Amino acid sequence: MDLYRPIYHFMPERNWMNDPNGPLFYKGDYHLFYQHNPYSDQWDTMHWGHARSRDLIHWEHLPVALAPSNDRGEHHCFSGCAVIGDDGLPVIFYTSIGIGERNAATGAEQWMAVSHDDMLTWEKPAANPVMTADIHGGMVVTEWRDPYVWKENGVWLMVVGGSHEGRGCALLYRSDNLRDWTFLHILHEGAEQIWECPNFFPLGDKHVLIYSPNGPVQYSIGSFNEDMTFTPEQSGIIDFSGWEGYYAPNGLLDDKGRRVLWGWLPEASRGEFKGAAGWSGAQSLPRILSLDGEGGLRMEPAPELAVLRGTPVSLRDLRLSGPDWDTGVRGRAFEIAAEFELLSGPIGISVLRSPDGQEETVFSIDPVDGVFTISRTRSSLSSEPHKTDVTGRIDLEGSSRVSLRLFVDHSVVEVFVNGRQCITARVYPVLESSEGVYIGVPRGAEALIHSMDIWPMRPIGQQTER
Ligand code: DQQ
Question: What are the pLDDT digits (tens) for 204-224?
Fold first, then answer.
């Protein structure tokens, strides 16, 4: 039994995976590509793995879509996007990293690949590279990678992540035919040294920019003006975990008009721990993005996930006034949906807990300090995995009511609070008996659980029926 391999988060059948790449809804299927080393569970030369799904939940694994073309001096196919071109053919844009001399000459290049067989195989046209860094004229851009392409008002646009004068940025380009590109300007920049994997898309009457600055993934919401500048109005954090749990998200627009986002759940937290092997990296649950009434971002787990739920344990109207209330649930793959009121002080939900409490991972919300935390101090008896707290600021907007969705999937703990704030962490408990689910408040504090449903979650396995 693999204690750590997630069963309802998307993963390749084996070996290494990192960033989600080129998510695209095409002819009735969700397509998801991903950074992949097909040969081992460690990061090495990057390929694009590929899978498709009819229902957003169950996936069919497809052949590797992109492999480095060594004969063209290519060493890695780094992250990127996929779009349907004006001729109806799917096109991938990605960052091509060269071997030795090629890399020394031009650095990272942006390449394209086209599919003539409904995305099963991909051809890299002779016209590559589509862009080299000299497209910026005299401006020096480093760490230039991860193209994201979309069409707006009849014009093809692209953002690419990079660093300019020590500041992370998203750079903007335009094209009329997807082949010839012109650099426009820096769309947005920040104090972080790099911005990776930018996404920029319309949402409601606003535009949203998402980027991964080598730490917790950020967003800005604002206006995309007629002169193609961006005026940010609000900003926030997609997920507070960064390298400990969630990085480099990428999204698509589906046939229901929904913006669906996946993020890579890295295994940096494994540290030197060798108990999990043969695979590395999972994708987050698909998150649906929308705007709330005040121009802020909502993030909710896709409703389709409900097909995975088994028979729940349901609690109603429970007044909690002490620690360690045993829900009776035991498991490593479940969802908790709860509505509660924090009458005074914090609340904690302990999962993956051994009978003697030696191992446990505790998610808590402290309304007084305005923080939520996944505490991993006792998450594993092994000294090797990371055990730092993963924590973030939480804004309950003056209300004591909380609506929580908490997903545990073996080594994944992924949490949504009030459909607005997310936090994810990886944990590696070593005891087979670490399966308990307890809730509690510190002595002297009080919380009212209006409802709490805990469903065992079924594995997503492989989609076979089409
Ligand atoms: N991972 C890719 C890069 C990207 C980084 C390489 C983010 O394209 O910038 O595997 O995790």
Answer: 999 999 999 999 999 999 999
Q: Which residues are bridge partners to 211 per DSSP? A: 218
What total number of domains does the chain contain?
A: 2
- Is 366 annotated as catalytic? no
The answer to whether ipTM exceeds 0.95 is yes
Name 428's Cβ contacts closer than 8 Å, sequence gap at least 6: 3, 4, 269, 270, 273, 275, 276, 379, 380, 382, 385, 411
Of the candidates 133, 134, 94, 99, the one whose C-alpha atom is nearest the C-alpha of residue 110 is 94
Distance CA 445, CA 441 (A): 6
| In a domain? residue 5 | no
Atom of ligand 1 nearest to the CA of 264: 11
Place of tokens 């996930």: 305
DSSP 369: T
Query: Does residue 152 sit within a domain?
Result: yes
Which domain, by its residues, includes 216? 15-303
Buried b (16+ CB within 10 A) or exposed e, 74-101: bbbbbbbbbbebeeeebbbbbbbbbeee
Per-residue pLDDT tens digits for 407-423:
999 999 999 999 999 99
Q: Which one of the listed residues 2, 19, 324, 453 is annotated catalytic? A: 19
Helix (H, G, I), strand (E, B) or coil at 90: strand
9 part of a folded domain: no
Could you tell me the CA-to-CA distances from 309 to 204, 238, 312, 330, 363 in Å, in that order? Answer: 31, 25, 8, 15, 21
Q: Rounded to whole angstroms, how far apart are CA atoms 30 and 253?
A: 10
220 lines ligand 1 (CB under 6 A): no
